[in-house]
What does this fold into?
Amino acid sequence: MGSNLELVKYQNFWFLTTPLKNILHYQAHFKARDSDIILASLPKTGTTWLKSLLFTIVNRTNPDHQPLINKSPLLNNLGVYGGNPLLPSPQQLHDEPPSTLRLLHSHLPYASLPESIKSSSSCKIVYIARNPLDTFVSQWHWHANLLKNRVGDHDELEPPSIEDFFESFCQGKFPYGPYFNHVIEFWKQSLEQPNKILFLKYEDLKSDQVVLQLKKLAEFVGFPFSSQEENEGLIKDIIKLCSINNLKDLEVNKNGFMNKFVKKKDFFRKGEVGDWINYFTPTMVERINNLMEEQLKGTDLSF
Ligand code: A3P
It folds into this structure.
């Protein structure tokens, strides 16, 4: 029975069938600019959080941009791309004035990114990774919600059982999976091209290293914090503004839909490290740990 999603394999990764056409269009037509910042991730690894942080960091001195209070990070000027037909087309992005700083987001694996992002522009890529156990749990909740929201439209779609979803996850069969191939490709590229790709971990952002991580992020994208800003507590203010409890309580994020089936509030669930413990059986832990050991061998990467 699997994950109950309609998937197709393309360039060794799995994609939902509907957005694939858009993805191919973007691959062929998107033109990156040197000033672009591309946020790359697997779904449910903290993308919305990183979007909020990046948006706040790069716009902190821009009087034309309200902070996230009045604007959902899901709907701000981040031209999210990767296949959602509701989001800006390559032509619309192309037409943005040259002075616009474009923050773009993609779930595409590294190999499938448009060439103009990878090689013919000096745009920056920030990748966020999250441990596979919490990523899995978050994806399972997400898909269960998504299918629940579709009831009435597609009554035959039952939310997947956690066992079936886990099987698909381990086989890499979920949107933009396999998990390890996606993460490892970006990890290797970040080591080979440290000025082009910054690799961040969700767990580091949740730890007491967060200030250090934000300083690294701000510097990487060309908006370093000054000593004065740091001394005035600006970094801590940004962390507070972008915390899940703050974002979750804002009216702009509480109500409404991103598209027909996706509720904005579903992007903000628990936001914790280690929630997997509430869902994994010992057999599941053993299986994912074995997979992790096998896949990450020789990479220097750990979760
Ligand atoms: P959980 O389902 O584990 O709570 P994405 O944005 O890539 O779709 O990831 C969603 C995950 O990030 C969800 O994880 C969500 O709750 C969490 N998240 C959203 N905003 C966050 C924030 N400000 N801080 C930490 N985690 C956040």
Q: What stands out?
A: Residues 75-83 have pLDDT under 50 and may be disordered.
